[in-house]
Design a protein that fits this description.
The chain has one domain: Amino acid/polyamine transporter I. α2 runs antiparallel to α11 and α4 packs across α16. The longest helix is centred in the first third of the chain and has 37 residues. The relative contact order is 0.21. Helix content is 81%, strand content 0%. With 404 residues, the chain is mainly alpha-helical. The chain is globular and about 65 Å long. The chain contains 18 helices and no strands.
Length: 404
């Protein structure tokens, strides 16, 4: 077991990526509005994410392919198909992550301001950008991996301690986690909780990081253990946030729009300690996502255009740095590039079902995975997840087009 725990790494990167400000905010609002009633959604979303991420891991470790590289190869010699795939991936990842990066940095700023209300937004955002940039540009892969493992453990401890301080209703939590129900008006939050857990760029990040970490298919048991434990822990963190909101805000009849509001609301009833703990967790969520979004974009670009995927390589640094700088500018100025975000949502809506379909194909391809292809139960589970991601993708497209 100790040896396997030492293998933790690529999965922790992925967990750090999806426990971002968006996930924390959505879980907070869900808990405040519906108590423990939507906890089952996070249990389901975590299991679905494990299925997809585990397939991406097999592609990286057994197939020795990054996801971007594999999709382009699958497009074959047809130039239109190949370049269509490249344009779609770059649009979804580079444009999308650059747009969303502002939200990641702003989330970390909210965490600081929840504990230190007088902290100036622009200066705090600038410091966070500099910190993320130093880790990304000068750390190297192993250093980045260790930082993000630390971020996941920090968030788990912070959100877990906050929940203990608040005091949950364990019976109601168990019922909410195990008995699916969708109260009136909750459908959008159900979709949001699933959509913030199953994220396209995490699949690129996980496949690339797993290939870099493990040399061949003999390491698959370790890689799978890392994926299942880390993604599972990420789901637990999201569940801790929802439960904290349910035990405090829902129980007291308070409404909030984000986790920073919850941190401030906790102090009168539960003391300053709860506020500081939640602020630390929110800061960790923002900073970890601010690191992983540029990292995933750098890996995908390296696969698509054939340059070195080492985070210390110059081209990798340029791509990752561009995402960080654009996001930093958005966070510092307070601008909200609505058109860019809508375009990113549209591209991600197209990309998500394409990736899910390709992963299901790859999981059954002996040419790619040899003896490590799916069994019957894995295919059934993968098919269900693919249908869900297709629905999420369609919703993102409709939202971007202004239908929703």
């Amino acid at each position: 077991m100790l040896k396997r725990l030492r293998s933790i790494g690529p999965g922790a990167l992925t967990a750090a990526a999806f426990i971002g400000p968006g996930t924390v905010t959505t879980a907070t609002v869900a808990g405040a509005a519906f108590g423990y009633g939507l906890a089952w959604t996070l249990v389901f979303a975590t299991l679905a994410a494990i299925i997809l991420q585990e397939t991406a891991v097999r592609l990286g470790v057994a197939g020795r392919l990054g996801l971007g590289e594999a999709i382009v190869k699958a497009a074959g010699a047809a130039p239109a198909l190949k370049w269509g795939a490249i344009v779609l991936i770059i649009s979804a990842l580079f444009v999308g992550n650059a747009a969303y990066e502002g939200g990641n940095i702003a989330g970390a700023v909210l965490g600081v301001q929840a504990a230190l209300p007088e902290a100036p937004r622009a200066t705090t955002a600038g410091v966070i950008v500099a910190l993320a940039g130093a880790i990304l540009l000068f750390g190297g892969y192993r250093v980045i991996e260790r930082v993000l493992i630390g971020a996941v453990l920090l968030m788990t401890a912070a959100f877990g301690a906050t929940l203990i301080v608040v005091g949950p209703d364990w019976t109601a939590l168990a019922k909410g986690a195990l008995v699916p129900s969708i109260p009136g008006g909750a459908l959008t939050l159900v979709i949001g909780l699933i959509g913030t857990t199953i994220v396209p760029y995490n699949l690129f990040l996980h496949a690339a990081a797993a290939r870099k970490r493990w040399p061949d298919a003999s390491a698959l048991p370790e890689a799978r253990f890392d994926a299942r434990l880390s993604i599972g822990l990420g789901g637990v963190v999201s569940l801790l946030v929802l439960s904290t909101a349910a035990a405090s805000l829902f129980a007291l009849g308070l409404e909030v729009s984000n986790a920073a509001d919850m941190a401030r609301q906790l102090e009168p009833a539960f003391g300053a300690g709860a506020t500081y703990l939640l602020a630390i967790g929110l800061f960790g969520a923002g900073l970890s996502s601010a690191i992983t979004a540029p990292l995933a974009t750098g890996f995908a670009a390296a696969e698509l255009f054939g340059f070195d995927s080492d985070p210390k390589a110059m081209k990798f640094r340029l791509v990752a740095g561009a995402v960080l700088v654009i996001g930093g500018a958005v966070a510092v100025t307070g601008a909200r590039p609505v058109e860019i975000i809508l375009f990113a949502q549209f591209a991600n809506g197209l990309l998500l079902p394409v990736i899910a379909g390709f992963l299901l194909y790859a999981a059954n391809s002996k040419r790619l995975l040899g003896a490590h292809t799916n069994g019957v139960l894995a295919n059934i589970a993968g098919g269900v997840v693919m249908l869900i991601t297709a629905g999420l993708g369609l919703r993102a497209i409709l939202k971007a087009l202004g239908v929703l």
